[in-house]
Amino acid sequence: MIQRNRGRFYDSEREVKDLIDEGHLEEKDNEGIEVPFFDFDSIIVATDNFSLANKLGRGGYGPVYKGKLQDGQLIAVKRLSSASKQGFREFKNEVILIAKLQHRNLVRLRGYCIKGEEKILLYEYMPNRSLDSFIFDREQGLLLDWQMRFDIIRGIARGMLYLHQDSRLRVIHRDLKTSNILLDKKMQPKISDFGLAKIFGGKETEGNSERLVGTYGYMAPESATKGSFSAKSDVFSFGVVLLEIISGKKNMGFYESEQISSLMGYAWRLWTEKRLLDLMDLSLCESCNMNQFTRSVHIGLLCVQDDPNDRPSMSNVVTMLGIETLPDPKQPTFYERRVPTNPASYSKLATSLQLDSIYESYEDGR
């Protein structure tokens, strides 16, 4: 048990892991967390008692509301559903990690609240919501020209590099996807949802989970089949996100032919046929920088290679986004299976795969 000293911050990997592993989280504990504890009544006032008028949407773990604090600051209030699979440990994981991680491309946590069964997270308010609401919507997608999309890709890459290498903690996100990328008023990307994240300490480079966690379609093959994860499994997820951003198509549920049932497979075929421009979202035709586009596809394919050792690090990705000469990718195996559209069948698939967030994503329309 950590002996708390008022005013002390817990910065090392071991100290933060111990803080997360403790079986409680109360107002008196916030000395080591660095974000304020809010009482439930103040959240009721801020959201007008969670009124429908303030409801922004429903994420995988519960509804999200717009709120306004007494000082006029706008916030997004995530109220975790009692039926959610995100338990207390995941909630505490998110509270502590986001408080410890400060970067322009990570979402900022403004506070948290626990009262009885209520578990609530207060984030900075993002007026443009999530990236998936733009790139997978024909009308909204028109608002994102090539330069904006390329800037979003670079911002996500810088945020992931910070998590893996540059922060005071080394963190593996484990659930990077387009719906977990939020956009501020300037359309700058902010990585969110750290409930499944893991801290790596010392000389650790990879780990294994007894259950498969993440979202199918973004999970690296080694994560989906063996439960193993590393910085390179995050790189795989980044590659999928990159391909989705530039194509406007979802990897999950993509279907081109009997031979090609994933966006990755489609991108690989276009690579081999030297028809990469066919992958482009049609709304980008007038604004696209062709060199940046083909380089982005190239990087995406490098990131989704089967062997983690073949994938670049996020440091290399950030560098490659600005250079012309890149190594050739190897063909991925496109491990994805077709997913049924019937909710009952989808739930059965999620159960068989023991995934933490696939079914919630389906219910949210993602």
Automatic annotation (TrEMBL):
Taxonomic source organism: Lupinus luteus
Pfam families on file: PK_Tyr_Ser-Thr (PF07714)
Domain Protein kinase residue range list: 50-334
Subcellular location field: Cell membrane
Entry protein name: non-specific serine/threonine protein kinase
Chief place of localization: membrane
Listed transmembrane segments: none
Annotated EC: 2.7.11.1
Keyword Ligase: no
GO CC term (a single one): plasma membrane
Highest classification ranks of the organism: Eukaryota, Viridiplantae, Streptophyta, Embryophyta, Tracheophyta
Classification via InterPro entries: Kinase-like_dom_sf, Prot_kinase_dom, Ser-Thr/Tyr_kinase_cat_dom, Ser/Thr_kinase_AS
